[in-house]
Amino acid sequence: MIKVAPSAKSKVTTLMQEEGFDPTVDFVRVGVKSGGCSGLSYDLKFDHDMRAEDKLFEDNEVKIVVDKKSLLYLIGTTLEFSGGLNGKGFVFNNPNAQRTCGCGESFSL
Fold first, then answer.
1. Cα of 39 vs its chain's centroid, Å
2. Alpha-carbon distances, residue 12 vs 68, 82, 87, 99, 102 (angstroms)
3. Domains in the chain and their CATH numbers?
4. Are 64 and 2 in contact (CB under 8 A)?
5. Per-residue pLDDT of the chain (109 residues; tens, 9 = 90+)
6. Which residues contact 48 (CB under 8 A, 6 or more apart)?
7. Which of 89, 80, 34, 87 is closest to 59 using CA atoms?
């Protein structure tokens, strides 16, 4: 399961609406791909097309879709949003990551 922090919920809802998505029916697609300074990086985008290999989660009124391969890396992750002085953007709090890079956009197991 992937959780959504309250800070991420409000930002996801705002951004989805700005980009023409409906947060009540469309979803956030979260994935993992090769790359980044630690070996794997997160991929986040809005979508409305489900695929056969997708798993749907809902937390804090946000729908999250993850493909089966990425799910192995993301189980237990919390999606957060940071708007502080050190940077602004979505942050993945992933308990499976053994090492992360300084920017928080890539990790390794």
1. 17
2. 22, 12, 17, 26, 23
3. 3-108 (2.60.300.12)
4. yes
5. 899 999 999 999 999 999 999 999 999 999 988 765 557 888 899 999 999 999 999 999 999 999 999 998 899 999 999 876 666 788 888 887 765 555 445 445 5
6. 21, 25, 26, 27
7. 80
